[in-house]
Amino acid sequence: MLRFIERATNAGHSQRLWPVLAMLVAVVALPTAGVLWFMNEAMQNEQLAVRQRLTDIYNAQLEAAAGRIQAAWRKTISVLPDAEQQKALPELFASLVKAGHVDSILFYSKGRLIYPVPIAITRLSPEPATAPWLQARSLEYAKNSPKEAAVAYSRIAQQSAVARESAMALMAQARCLNKDGQQRKAIDLLTGTLAGSPYRSIADAQGRLILPNALLFALQLMKEPAQPLFQKTAALLVERLNDYGNPVMPTTQRRFLVEQLRSSWPDCPRFPVLEAEETASSFEKTTPHPLAAGRVQPTRMPDLWAYQTPDGSLIALFRQDHLLQSMNVAIAELQPVRGIRYSVFPPGFSSAAFLTTGIGEAFPSWQIALNLEGTPPFQSASKQRIATYVWTGILMTAGITILFLFMAGYLLRQVRLTRLKNDLIATVSHELKTPLASMRLLVDTLRNGHYQDAQLVQEYLQMIAKENARLSRLIEEFLTFSRMERRKTKFDRSVLATHEIVKSALEAVGDRLQAPGCRLDLELAPEMPSIVGDRDALITVLVNLLDNAIKYTGDTKEIRLRGFTSDGNVCFEVQDNGIGFPRTAAKKIFDRFYQADHTLSRSAGGCGLGLSIVQFIVTAHNGNITAKSQPGKGSTFTVQLPAA
Ligand code: ADP
C-alpha cells in the first residue's frame, strides 16, 4: 500500500500526505473495527442461543429416555407373579430366572420365606428293613461278598411290586457290582434299566430322586468324559438338574449333584437357576428385610439390587449389569440422534456429562446422562451461521478496503496533479524569466546605442541567440512533458538506422560540443542493428543525455558516447568526467522536477525534466535506462533499446 502511495506521489513529498492518508485509514479502520466487533458479538450470541436451543431439545430427549426406562421397568415388574400364583413355586422360580426376568426371587407368605428353602435331609438313605433286604445287606457288609449281595439285590428288584423298592434295589445291585469289579455291568444297569421310564420320577423315602443319583454314579464309574455314553448320560443328568417340575428335586440334592458333576466333568455347563437359588439364600442371610416397597434398593451383596412388591409377597433380585443392560436396551429403542450418547449410572457414580437427570421414583439416585460425541452439535450448528457472519465481515472489510484504495488512488492523483501544476508554474515562470531577462538586457543595451562596435554587437547578438536557444529548449521540454503527462504523446514509429540517430543527435547538440575544453569521444560499433521507434524522440534521448554531460562537467569536458550491441539490444552509453551525483540521488534523478543541485542546475539552465522525458521515451520504446555515478568523478548513463 505504502509503495503504491509512494509511487503515486513523489517520494520526497509523501510526508505531507500523511494527514490525508491517516484520515483515509481511519475511514477504513473505524468501520472495519465496528464490523469485527459486531461480528464477534453476533457470533457469541449465536453460540449461546444455539446452545440454549439444543439444551432444551436434549433435555426433552433425556426425559424421553428416562420415560423409556420407566416403561421397561413397569413391564418387568408386571411379569412378577402376584400372591395368588397358580404355578408351583420351584417351577415359577425357574421359569422367571430362565426367562431372564429376574436374577433371583424370594417368595414369602405372611412374612416367612417359603421358597427357595433348603429341605433338611439325612445323609444316609434308609433302605427297607424287610428280610430280603437284611439278608442282602448282610452279604454286602457283614460277609463282604458283593457278588452274592448283587444277586440278592437283583432278586429283590425283580420281585418287588413297588417301583421305589425296585429302584433302590437296582441302585444297591449296581453298588455291589462296582465293589465286585464289574463296572461295565454296573454302568449298563445304571444307564439302562434304572434310566427306564418306570424309575424316572421315583424318590427315596427322604424325597431324593433316585435316577439323578444313579446317573451321577454311572458317570463317576465311566470317568472318561470323551465317551459317547458319558456325554449322553451327562446330558440326561443336566436336563434333570434343570428340571424344576414335579417331582421337585430337593435343593440340597441338586446342589450336591451339581458339585459332584462339576468335579468329575470339567466342561459341566452352568446351572443358572441353581445359582439364583444360591443368590437368594445369600441375600436372605445377609440383607435385613422387609425392604421399602416399590423401588429398587441396594442389598448387602455387591452389585445386587432388590425390589420388594408392595404386598411383601416377593423380593426380586437383579444384578447391576442386568439392570444397566435392560435400561440400555430400552434407550436403544429411541430414535437415535447423531452425536448423542446416553449412559446410565447407579448411585455413587458421577459423570462429566453434558446433561443428567434422574430415572424416576423406582430407581432412587440412579441417573441417566447425555454425552455429546465429537464436536458439540451446537458448535457445528452455529458454525454455519458464524461462517456467514465471517464471510459477510470479510466481504464488507474487503469492500471498504477496495473503496479506500479507489479513494486513495483518486485523491493521490489529484494531489499529484495539483503539485505538478504548482511545480510547473513555479518552474516555468522562473526558468522563462532568466533567459527573457538576459535577452531584454542585451536588447536594451543595443537599443541604447551600443552598436558602433561591430564585434560587441556580434557578441551581444550571439548571446541573445544562445538565450533564445535555451528558451526554445525549455519550452520544448515543457511541451514534451505536458504531452507526456496528458498521455497525448504519439510516437511515429519506423525502422531507424542507429548511426543516423547518433549523427542527428550530435548535430542537434551542435557547437556546444565544439566549445574550448570540450572533447567528445565517439565509439560506435561498425555494424549496429536498426531500431524501431520515433526518430525525433530517440534523438531527444541522446540530446538530453549529452546536454546533461556538458552541463554537469567542469571546464575540461571529456565526454564519451558509445554505441554497441548487447544481448540483442542496441545500447548507448553517455559518459562524462563531471560532478556526478551521490548514490541517494541516483534513484531520484529520473523523477520530474528533481534536481540534485538546484543552484547548479539553474545556472546550467535546467528545470529537472530532461531525464524524466528520457525515461518516458525509453520505456515507451520497451527499453530501459540506468545511471551510475561517483561524485566528483563523473557519471555514466546507459540506454538499452530492443533491436529491430
Ligand atoms: P535538468 O534540467 O536539471 O538537467 P534533468 O532531468 O536532465 O534536469 O536532470 C536531473 C538532475 O540530475 C540534474 O538536475 C542533475 O542534478 C542530475 N544530473 C543529470 N545528468 C547529470 C550528469 N551527467 N552529471 C551529474 N548530474 C546529472
End-to-end distance: 38 Å
Describe the sheet with the most strands.
Answer: 5 strands, antiparallel
Radius of gyration (CA) equals 61 Å
What is the chains' assembly state?
single chain
Within CATH, the superfamily of the domain at 486-642 carries the name Histidine kinase-like ATPase, C-terminal domain
Q: What small-molecule ligands were found?
A: adenosine-5'-diphosphate
Indicate the overall shape.
rod-shaped
The tally of helices reads: 19
Helix content: 55-70%
Overall pLDDT? 85
- Tell how many strands the DSSP assignment holds: 15
Structural class: alpha+beta
- The unreliable regions are 1-15
CATH C-level name of the domain at 486-642: Alpha Beta
